[in-house]
Amino acid sequence: MTVIPQHKIASWLVNAINDCLQWFGISHSETAEAIIYFIIVLGIALGVGWLLQTVVVGALRRIVRRKNSEWGNELLRERTLSKCARVIPPLVLLGFLPFAFDNDAAWHTWATRIVAVWFVICFGYGVCAVLRFIWIRYDTAANTRRLPMRGIYDLGLGLTWLIVAIISVSILIDKSPAMLLTGLGAVAAAMMFVFKDTILGFVAGIQLSNNDMVRVGDWITVPNTPADGVVEDVNISVVKVRNFDNTMVYLPPYSLVDNAFKNWRGMSEFGIRLISRNILIDASTIKADEKDPSTTNLTLFRKWCLDYLNNNPHLDHSGQGNSLIMVRLMAQEASGVPMQLYCFTNTTVWPDYEAIQSEVMEHVIAAANQFGLTVYNYPTKL
Fold first, then answer.
1. Does residue 177 lie within any of the structural domains?
2. What is the DSSP letter of 79?
3. Are 17 and 132 found together in one domain?
4. Closest C-alpha to 155, from 212, 195, 184, 214
5. Are residues 243 and 295 in the same domain?
6. Structural domain that includes position 220
7. Residue 245: inside a domain, yes or no?
8. 41 with 127, same domain?
9. C-alpha distances in Å from residue 313, one per residue of 271, 309, 320, 346, 347
């Protein structure tokens, strides 16, 4: 049974093929006739599809260039239009299939399925291109909070290709996608076990984004890990942290959801940073004031320190973000009486912060002797 359809165009093309074969001295063969016929129809279909794709993409590009908008330039730069237009050739080929095979031939059925799968894959490729365009536009322009949207973008890509795979298999085996899903229970369980980290990463990425737990550019410290630096990227499989010594630490996203970590974003937002340092005072040097026995030299020193901090121009005095200035005594230790300086600098720049902190401590330690107090030193053996 011939696979070539019985219509005028097909008959004319078959006769032309036979004439060419005879001209080259090749004897008549139905197999060769069918192969050449299919190649010609396939070539014409792909040529028409490519031509339509070129015309459509070219027209859309001219329209976008006339608009001269930022999003239009982004479309051209990412070649989103070209990627979406790849669905045109398989659509044209589907229209040409009745000219290539007889409708009753098994070849027609399988060719239709294969081209339909090709169309589904191209459609999925176009959807991914649109998702990438949306993600880039949001992440670079509208994402002012620098949220880790990469995880949601990766989730969209994963779901898209999962749907493409299910539809493609259902087309090839000629079964409903719903019926296919019902038979994938055991396979799905195995896949969940194999891709456990990826699935956890999907969920963790969404939680990190929705709860605004971490953003790209945040300084985070993760206990029990070497991570103490700035977040550079967050996706479904890894959180990239660049430490201050320029080493990189890679963490699974779910580790930030399951375990506690410190985010220093609030410090940057308020523009202040905490100084909390203790000075150990030798208890044997604490004495009552001669004029007022109810007051000690440590009391006077503590009040002087508080006055010094309150008048220091490098410290924050606004009271924002729980900003306080205190000088207090902590529980006595065997090594002395701890006096804590608690205040906030009005800058978060690391070198400036360290310089202010050092200056405050140096000034306070040097002033202790003026009140007859001695800063405790651990005894050393000579």
1. no
2. T
3. yes
4. 195
5. no
6. 208-266
7. yes
8. yes
9. 15, 9, 16, 9, 11
Instruction: Kindly provide the b/e burial profile for residues 54-86, where b requires at least 16 CB atoms within 10 angstroms of the residue's own CB.
Output: eeebeebeeebeeeeeeebebbeebebbbbbbb
Mind listing the pLDDT tens digit for each residue in 62-86? 777 777 776 677 777 777 777 887 8
> How long is the chain?
382
Q: At 188, which amino acid appears?
A: A
Q: Is residue 380 part of a domain?
A: no
Question: What is the average pLDDT across 362-380?
Answer: 86
Q: Which of 110, 142, 174 is the last residue of a domain?
A: 142
Residue 317: φ, ψ to 5°:
-120, 15
Map residue 339 onto helix, strand or coil: strand
Buried b (16+ CB within 10 A) or exposed e, 100-115: bbbeebeebeebbeeb
Amino acid at 75: L
Q: Which of 238, 266, 294 is the last residue of a domain?
A: 266
Cα gap 44→141, rounded to integer Å: 44
Are 88 and 121 members of one domain? yes
Regarding whether 126 and 40 lie in a shared domain, the answer is yes
Total number of domains in the chain: 3
Which is higher by pLDDT, 98 or 168? 168
Task: State how far the Cα of 283 lies from the Cα of 285, in Å rounded to an integer.
Answer: 5
How far is CA 136 from each of CA 35, 139, 371, rounded to the nearest angstrom?
46, 5, 63
pLDDT per residue as tens digits for the range 145-180: 555 566 677 778 888 888 888 888 888 888 777 776
273 sits in which H/E element? strand 273-281
Whether 181 is covered by a domain: the verdict is no
Alpha-carbon distances of 362 from 329, 347, 375, rounded to whole Å: 19, 19, 12
Which CATH number does the domain housing residue 245 bear?
A: 2.30.30.60
H or E element that contains 109 = helix 106-137
Q: How do strand 228-234 and strand 219-221 relate by DSSP bridges?
A: antiparallel
